[in-house]
Design a protein that fits this description.
Blueprint (H helix, E strand, L loop, with lengths): L1 H26 L2 E7 L3 E22 L4 E5 L14 E2 L4 E6 L1 H6 L2 H23 L5 H26 L2 E3 L4 E5 L8 E2 L4 E18 L11 E6 L6 E9 L9 E9 L10 E17 L5 E3 L2 E8 L2 E12 L4 E5 L6 E5 L10 E7 L1
Parallel strand pairs: 1-19
Antiparallel strand pairs: 1-18, 2-9, 2-13, 3-5, 3-8, 4-7, 5-6, 7-9, 9-12, 10-11, 10-13, 11-12, 13-17, 14-15, 15-16, 16-17
Helix pairs in contact: 3-4
């Protein structure tokens, strides 16, 4: 009996010590870092990666052989070089072939066309007055058609002696040839890309099927330069899933007018599938769970208070709070691990 009484006394003493320790822990102020809540934007984002491609790209070869002459860039006053911008129609290279030019009398063909046009108009007027037969009019028309084709072909062949840019863009490749050296037909002359607008082909997970839609905004960031972000738009989506990979294809059109990004870059694309504006949000790690749901700690004076919250949209940086908090309240973002409802706190730092 005495042993039982002694045991009970020991348990009571231990309980008392535990309560004292609990009260002691509640009385000791915990250093915390807080953040003032203010409305902002929270986005649900589907993240994918891929390689950027230029919206326009062309490699030009020469259709005629001739002596090579690189032309002067009117914007710089020097010969064209890689990295130079060109406009559609800009003459980058000219080829000279005196023997070919001598056999292609463009001025003679133009004069012959003018004579044929005048003769046809003359025969047409005479025919209407009965002065010539229909056969004579038809012959004049045939001569006109033949002269026009001959002149047009001469223009086309002469145009082959110059290498013109078919697009607005930037010279990305310009093989070196000495001025005046003869180059054979069919060699690479110049490559041009337009990367003011680019294309990103992506593979999307099946979980995002139905969430990702044409017209949605995507934020494109380079892994080599994370601060450089440009905006893109979902332009195309496959309507079917790939059975083997459980994924589907998409295409993002990227506006790159500032040329922050370049073709061939491996980039990250964050596709915004949902967005809440003027809403409260907190860092994901401060949202804790209990049997009754989710909660965060807020600072009330010098005391931490457990606040039950209802969450909405989430991403890797923020969790939307749709109920339970108000703008202007201070939430604990560091030091909350040892807190309990009613714990004393001391604000050590405040983050924005």
């Amino acid at each position: 009996m005495k042993n039982i009484i002694a045991a009970l006394i020991f348990v009571v003493i231990l309980a008392g010590c535990g309560n004292q320790n609990q009260r002691f822990n509640m009385d000791v102020a915990v250093d915390v870092t807080v953040q003032n809540l203010s409305p902002g934007t929270v986005r649900e984002v589907v993240t994918v990666t891929g390689d950027l491609l230029p919206a326009g790209s062309v490699t030009l070869t020469n259709e005629m052989s001739g002596e090579y002459f690189l032309q002067t860039n009117p914007a710089t006053g020097t010969l064209f070089r890689m990295g130079d911008r060109v406009k559609k129609g800009s003459v980058i290279i000219r080829l000279e072939d005196k023997a070919y030019r001598n056999t292609t009398d463009i001025e003679g063909e133009r004069l012959n066309l003018e004579i044929s046009e005048q003769e046809y108009e003359k025969q047409k007027a005479l025919y209407e007055k009965g002065g010539v037969t229909q056969r004579e009019l038809v012959n004049a028309e045939r001569n006109l058609v033949s002269a026009r084709k001959t002149y047009e072909n001469a223009q086309i062949n002469l145009a082959k002696m110059s290498i013109d840019s078919p697009i607005d863009g930037v010279i990305t490749s310009l093989p070196y040839y000495s001025q005046g050296v003869r180059v054979q037909q069919g060699v690479e002359m110049v490559s041009i890309m337009n990367y003011d607008r680019m294309i990103l082909n992506v593979t999307l997970p099946a979980a995002s099927f139905g969430k990702v839609k044409a017209g949605q905004t995507a934020f494109i960031t380079s892994y080599s330069s994370a601060e450089d972000t440009v905006t893109g738009t979902i332009s195309q989506l496959s309507p079917a899933l790939d059975i083997a990979t459980r994924s589907f294809k998409g295409r993002i059109s990227v506006q790159n007018s500032t040329n922050l990004l370049r073709p061939g870059m491996f980039v990250n694309a964050g596709i915004v599938v949902q967005q809440s504006d003027s809403t409260l949000s907190v860092p994901p790690n401060v949202v804790l769970s209990q049997m009754g749901g989710k909660f965060v700690y807020v600072v009330d004076g010098e005391t931490a208070r457990k606040r039950i919250v209802q969450t909405g949209l989430e991403n890797k940086d923020r969790v939307e709070i749709v109920d339970g908090l108000e703008a202007g309240e201070q939430i604990v973002v560091k030091g909350f691990e040892t807190l309990r409802d009613g714990s004393k706190v001391k604000i050590e730092d405040e983050v924005k």
